[in-house]
Amino acid sequence: MPALARTLAARLPFYYGWVVLAGLCLAGFARQGPALAPLSVFVLPMTREFGWSRAAISGAVSLGGVLAALAAPIIGPLLDRRGPRLVLCVAVLVNGTALFLLSFTPSLLVFYVLFCIARMNWAAPFDLAIYGAINNWFVERRAFASSVATLAQMAGLVVLPLVAQFAIDHGGWRNGWAAIGFLTLAIGFLPSWLLLARRPEDLGFVPDGAVRSAHTDTTIRQPEQQFSRRDAIRTSAFWMLLAYTILVYPVQAGVSLHQAPHLIERGISPTVAAAIVATFSAASGLGTLACSLLPRRLPLRFVLAFVGAVMATGPLLMTRIAGPFDGYVAGAVYGFGIGAMLTLLPVAWADYFGRSNFGAIRGVTLSAQVLAQATGPLLSGALHDWTGNYMLSLYTFAALASLSVVAALGARRPVIS
What we know:
Mean pLDDT: 88
Low-confidence stretches: 213-221
Order of helices and strands: HHHHHHHHHHHHHHHH
């Protein structure tokens, strides 16, 4: 544990968990270098220079996701043993270096090696470490802390493409990758190295800020149940939450990636389509903020069911778009549901199965999540090629999201027997 963390924890007049959260927000912001939004900025200049197809570049995204699915079950137990600091620092260093080296890309093979490494880190170590740390440091304020961290990551999705485009405009795409790599290291590494601590108990606290009593090891007013990975897998709640994950993530990725092309095919100008996509992003932020206001006594399965219904409504509204107003409404509804879902699922896994083995449990489910996410764009693209439009894919995604409502309602909080 860094000495600075111990010193600050002893001297600060407020809970050190908020310092940890600030460090996690910076790491989450820096995480977004290999996300789809920054990559989209590089597609045109790199395909022009090398003559690559769009499918060739897109394949690196899918392969990185497959690698993340393989790595997550291994990284999860490491997170439980060593804490988020090691995992996050290594992820930041590897990603910053890989993204910077992409500025020297000479071939498609080198691009695949470097980008797949960065994408694997984006999908597995970053996700596990950020939310694993939040769930260790917060219980009663877990939803609020998760909302703040998710908003920071959304901010990265907004800012990093702008930084990349600015660098490209003033020096070409190689400068763009160098700028993203440098920013990843500058923003993400030092806060993670200097400020993160494994658990509040290591510094004399319990989650949410109370000082540990000398006479009790109780960590919250009603102590969380602590499931092992084996015990968690034996519960029906595990499989219901996993089913929910597998149903909603194809919707999240499939609709999001093809949203703008669908709007343009419905007769909306590219400029207005871009504005609708921006509205979708803003509504995602509102969905995240709304999660921070939820009372903790409200059963999460009902909230997840509501979110699944909202996610089903969004694609259905998109099938009826006849003008810009319809597009703004559909984008806002869908975006709100996505923001809420991205915030609440990590909270649900921690609330249901506890902090002690969060990494091991989440590592298994994250593999399924990444693979499910990868199927969405492929399904949407294939159905579009088959039918000539996105209508069938939107109906399919609405059906998947509707089924997620059933899965959520069946995910009753488990009890250790």
